[in-house]
Fold this sequence. Notes:
Layout: H1 3-18, H2 27-39, E1 40-41, H3 52-56, E2 69-72, E3 75-80, E4 87-88, E5 102-104, E6 126-128, E7 135-136, E8 150-152, E9 157-160, E10 174-176, E11 181-185, H4 188-191, E12 192-194, E13 197-198, E14 210-212, H5 226-260, H6 264-271
Parallel strand pairs: 3-5, 5-6, 6-8, 7-9, 8-10, 9-11, 11-14
Antiparallel strand pairs: 1-4, 2-3, 12-13
The protein binds 2-acetamido-2-deoxy-beta-D-glucopyranose (5 copies).
Amino acid sequence: MSGHHLAAAAVAAVLFLLSPPPCAADPDDERCLSHLHQSLSDPSGGLRNWTKAAFSAPCEGFFSHLQGVTCNNGRVYKLALPGLSLGGTIPPELSNCTNLQSLDLSANALSGTIPPELSALLNLAVLNLSSNALSGAIPRELASCAYLNVIDLHGNQLSGAIPDELGLLVRLSTFDVSYNRLSGPIPVLLANRTVGTARFNASSFAGNKDLYGYPLPPRRTRGLSVLAIVGIGLGSGLLSLVLSFSAVCLWLRATDRTAATPGKEGKISQLMPDY
Ligand SMILES: *[C@@H]1O[C@H](CO)[C@@H](O)[C@H](O)[C@H]1NC(C)=O
Ligand SMILES: *[C@@H]1O[C@H](CO)[C@@H](O)[C@H](O)[C@H]1NC(C)=O
Ligand SMILES: *[C@@H]1O[C@H](CO)[C@@H](O)[C@H](O)[C@H]1NC(C)=O
Ligand SMILES: *[C@@H]1O[C@H](CO)[C@@H](O)[C@H](O)[C@H]1NC(C)=O
Ligand SMILES: *[C@@H]1O[C@H](CO)[C@@H](O)[C@H](O)[C@H]1NC(C)=O
């Protein structure tokens, strides 16, 4: 046996010892995938080969029998199930796929909220939940996924404010929350990277009726301009002044008249002692 054959055999042996057994089941991935499967509805059969048996061993190295699953070193590393007409909700147990780097459930019919538990996915770089029917708030906990590069949540029914903390994600290069029901001010750190340089432009925030602030226009006063409000204020002030003035005049005139007419009341009041 020549020297380099020996070396090659040694390298092969080391690689064999280092590589995980091909069908090693990971209990966390199994929990993650079976909960995901349970909470999704699959009317068009895109997840036909998502079977219980496959969940216990979803990975063979980089390969997976499960539609949309990519593995790395025997762990689920990517979940890509866009455009499969999936209904149902995103289960908090998705966070048990602890090696997940990319989660794409876009262009389905998912409802319910985005579980804050997803913040346990510390390697997550891509989160694409766009074009679904997700509601509730954007969890501020997502800010602890420090590797997040892409957050695409456009085209849902998310409400509430955009959490300021998301502006602290330094790797964020794509951020799209357009066409939701978000409200409140746009976090300064998402709008301006450094003063004068737009970080994300208006197209990231468009289609949310009650979001305001740069790069969108400033807060709108509902329907009325400032001038109109000032005008109405002044006008109603003047009107109430005139009304109360004429009321006082009428009252004065009436009391004058009763004092002038010597009636029973006048006599009684004259009999009353002075205090
Ligand atoms: C599972 O479904 C996907 C897509 O339909 C297919 O590519 C894959 O080969 C299937 N796997 C098995 C084991 O049937
Ligand atoms: C799995 O996910 C659930 C929900 O987020 C969590 O409570 C549980 O601790 C996780 N299990 C493990 C082993 O991480
Ligand atoms: C998210 O998914 C949608 C639909 O599948 C796709 O059009 C979009 O480009 C994706 N977003 C990013 C940032 O890749
Ligand atoms: C962001 O930058 C723009 C353009 O320079 C500036 O006009 C705006 O005041 C800044 N917004 C905030 C909230 O600092
Ligand atoms: C906004 O930024 C995106 C890339 O981040 C770019 O494709 C798009 O053209 C920009 N839109 C406007 C109106 O500047």
